[in-house]
Amino acid sequence: MHNYRPVQVLEALGVCYEDEQLYRALLARPEATTTDLVNDTGWPTARVARHLRSLLSLGLASRTAGRPARYTPAVPEAAVELLALRKQAAIVQARLSASVLTKEFRAAHESGPFTVIRGEQAIAQRFYQAQQSAQTEVLVLDKPPYAVLPVEPRRAYGVSYRTIYDMAALGNPAELAAARSAGASCRMLSDVPLKLVVADRRTGLLQTGQEVIELGPSSLLDALVRLFELLWQQATSLTPESSGDGPLSAEDHQLLALAAAGLTDQAIARRLGVAQRTVERRMQRILKSLDATTRFQAGLRAGQRGLLI
């Protein structure tokens, strides 16, 4: 027997694999009881009950009155729209958290020990030194304007880089191509809230205007790392995985990724270096290939078929 694992399509919206599998079981058997779902999934009753509670909290299912209790799945498109709105709310919350962190930082700036670095040459040297000292990973929140240009001197030595680019940092086709060449370690967000480099989660360089604040191990640095991880979950991959025999070309994947990040046809055209009419024509072809009527539906169906990461 093959150990077949269905493609997960709701993970990007915060739904774990087991929750999604139970949701699919409900779609196949509306108004199922807990016993029905135990029989359909082969899971223990406690496991089914735990994930039913999760589906209820996510709005993916509702419970009918009476005994035994029966569970009804939410309509997929409506449920996904709700989850997408919650994801957008999480992004807003992350940006609000950034402002709170800034206030905490300024309070620490007045009373606590840390290093303030000023001057273009000194800033460039410290950015380089911090990355050179990294042994395992470097996390980067990247947005213009730049006091110094971002570099990745340790990538060639096996140090893992993860970078979230602000859309404004990828303003032309050459910049976008350079970012995409780094592979899945780079993602894009419509509005990165601050500029940050963290080396091995022990040294943080936070740029504020023309000066950089260096942070050592602290609760503030831990909070900045948590902010990065939240933004990483919300950001859009720049390198969707292409399936050679699928209906989408590599260029189609790139266009869908940019559209999913919220760019307009005009903005996509500028980044790809093509005419807006070309983008519109390609998008219409993608919609037709995926039998979709909207961009959102196209992205959902591409995910369901395993055509996007």
Automatic annotation (TrEMBL):
Keywords: DNA-binding. Residues 241-306 form the HTH luxR-type domain. PROSITE patterns: HTH_LUXR_2 (PS50043). Signal peptide: none annotated. It comes from the Bacteria. One of its GO terms (biological process) is regulation of DNA-templated transcription. One of its GO terms (molecular function) is DNA binding. The keyword Ribosomal protein does not apply. Coiled coil: none annotated. This is DNA-binding NarL/FixJ family response regulator. It comes from Kribbella voronezhensis. The lineage of its organism: Bacteria, Bacillati, Actinomycetota, Actinomycetes, Propionibacteriales.
